[in-house]
Model the fold of this input.
Amino acid sequence: MKVASTEIDGRKVFSVSSFNQGISSWLERLPTVWVEGEVTELRRQERWAAVFFTLKDPENGACLAVQMPRGQFDALRLELADGERVHVYGRPELYARRGAFHLRALTIERYGLGAHLLALERLKKRLALEGVFAEEVKRPLPRIPRLIGLVTGNDAAAKRDVLTSISSRFPPANVLVAETYVQGERAARAVEDAMAALCAGGVDVLIIARGGGSFDDLLPFSDERLVRAVRACPVPVVSAIGHEQDVSLVDLAADVRASTPSIAGRLVVPDLAELRAWLERTQLGLHRKARRMCERRAERLARTRERLRQAPLRELERRRTRLEATRAHLHALSPSATLERGYAIVRAGDRLVREPPALGTELAVEVAGGAFPARAG
Done:
């Protein structure tokens, strides 16, 4: 495409539009290329036809604008986030109207994703089948740990965040820190050794903390040996590795996963103010219960004392009633009661007269009012 120019005072002058069109036409002749960089300023909206982000060179900060049709971007299902290193395959373009240069992306791959990601996915499935990530094997964290173990990098911001969070939430907490490699080939074995050393030191809970990084930076935390060491750790493990969207196999094997190191610190200790308030409520509740129990016992003792005081009187009354009934019964059966009903006792000497006596027999007759002599006639 030939770009038109205007001859002015012996100069060939291009309009801005013509100039931009010429550059755009020249760029279209360039081949497609692969460009490596870190994703920043990722912008995606449902109403937009394209996805926009910037590729940044981590070495010197150089930037390149990138555009990709939203349908193609979504079809890749990469779920990219700022800070990830990628390879972008595309063609350089110039938006002639604004003179804005960008790379039109045709496809995107995470850097080093291929073999690493495939092996990682196979390992993840195998460990899941073995139950390494199962929820039922995860252990609860101690409510108030006596000693907290922290595995982190040397002079890492993650270490500062964890310690600050713990000290501000629960100042009496004791933390034993093991600084070790958290990146590179030696990291997985170094973290495992640090965990073993802290457990030997008597910690009640372990935190593994590392700040964000690229996919390669976090690979040690998906090492099979380290994952199994986390699962076999004799104390509960809290993982705080990378950004919230980064999920390593150690995160899946840990008893608790924290999205940030600060949150990990808050998870392992109680809030001292809340704990004191709970203790005060508990103390007050115990005082009230003890007072109510004493009041109930005092009332029960008073009732028992009253029953004991009244028991002899009631027993004496029962026995008096029984005695009166016996006396009345005996009186009803006595001879005097019979005499009072009009009967008499007749004796002939010492013998009771039960048959009519012979004429002239001397008798003694006893009636209710007394006795008198008589003669049978």
